[in-house]
Design goal:
Length: 349
């Protein structure tokens, strides 16, 4: 008899999740003869009565490659060790569900939160897991890249291209707030690709003087419009983040100094997470899905799939979840951006 494996998606969604599921179905079910059970809404699907699970056959893989979101549903409120509202530890119930359904193990698609829970389930409840990393923020240190990131960057680039033409027509300063609570990767890549003039990221606190200087320098050479990308986790020097107010704060600071400017703010929000994955993410997601099947086949439970130096490989989960990846303020990418005139809102350079 073939293996019986469960698969779930946890945390925020990302373009490419369905492409991973498709790859696991095509390779695991289609070629290795697995029976695969999709678990709905992260671990929640195993902690309800009746269970919310769906058998995934080759039929279900159809049309998944370009499809955004996750057909399994997801949530970031499904911690079996600390159940929302009640604080209960329901990991024992979860282990019982895995056993009752005859699952040999789980493939968990998710970010650091989901992978930390998965590892704990393996350690404390003996549930074998193989992780597939997911975050559009690209802030997981374990992997060089995550699927979904490139799609988000393309979305930001497209938004900046659109803002560029209207900013230039009206001589306006346009601010674009993008995702990135703790890391500025989306802002930095999107800002470079979309030709932003200022990029403010969590790793480099900004000053009003730094940002205004750039706007004024441009105006002085006949460019009376500017594009400013603001990561949602950006903050002024010496101050704390105010959730949901990143771009607004920058706008207020500019207005206070340069009240004559015509300033507008756009918050790109969940547009960055929705929709079809770009080709790069479809390929990466497919590689991750196939590698996850290989890890299960090899009995390499407790590992996470990752991309390192161009190669997709497995790495022990505890090692993988320990490292967080932020933008190096002195790194090559920031230097490259500075070299083409992008200002980070700091006064020093
Ligand atoms: O996955 C992280 C992220 O992309 C953050 O950049 C952002 O703050 C968050 O998701 C928003 O997610 P939600 O609206 O689902 O809480």
């Amino acid at each position: 008899m073939g293996r019986k494996i469960g698969i779930l998606t946890g945390g925020g969604d990302a373009p490419g999740l369905n492409a991973v599921i498709r790859a696991v179905v095509k390779y695991g079910v289609g070629q290795k003869g697995w029976s695969l059970l999709g678990i709905e809404d992260s671990f929640n699907g195993l902690l309800c009565d009746p269970y919310r699970v769906v058998p995934l056959s080759m039929q279900q893989a159809k049309g998944l490659l370009p499809r955004g979101g996750t057909v399994l549903g997801t949530t970031n409120r499904a911690d079996p060790f600390n159940w929302p509202k009640t604080g209960e530890n329901r990991s024992g119930e979860l282990a019982a569900a895995v056993q009752k359904l005859g699952l040999e193990g789980l493939i968990t698609l998710g970010g650091d939160g989901t992978q930390a829970m998965a590892w704990r389930l393996m350690q404390e409840r003996g549930i074998p897991v193989v992780g597939v990393p997911k975050t559009i923020d690209n802030d997981l240190g374990a992997t060089d890249l995550c699927f979904g990131f490139q799609s988000a960057v393309d979305c930001v680039t497209d938004a900046l291209d659109r803002l560029h033409t209207t900013a230039e027509s009206h001589d306006r300063v346009l601010l674009l707030e993008v995702m990135g609570r703790d890391a500025g990767w989306i802002a930095l890549h999107g800002g470079i690709a979309g030709g932003a003039d200022v990029v403010v990221i969590p790793e480099i606190p900004w000053t009003p003087e730094g940002i205004c200087r750039k706007i004024q320098e441009r105006a002085a050479v006949g460019r009376p419009f500017s594009l400013i990308v603001v990561a949602e986790g950006a903050r002024p020097v010496g101050e704390k983040i105010i959730p949901g107010k990143a771009a607004e704060r920058v706008a207020e600071a500019i207005r206070a100094r340069l009240p004559e400017l015509d300033l507008r703010t756009t918050v790109l929000g969940h547009l960055q997470r929705g929709g079809s994955p770009v080709a790069f993410d479809r390929v990466l997601a497919t590689r991750f899905g196939v590698r996850a099947v290989d890890l299960v086949e090899a009995g390499r439970w407790g590992e996470l799939v990752r991309l390192r130096n161009g190669k997709v490989e497995g790495v022990p989960l505890p090692e993988a979840i320990a490292v967080y990846k932020t933008v190096d303020p002195n790194g090559e990418l920031v230097q490259t951006a500075r070299s083409v005139g992008i200002n980070f809102g700091d006064t020093t350079r």
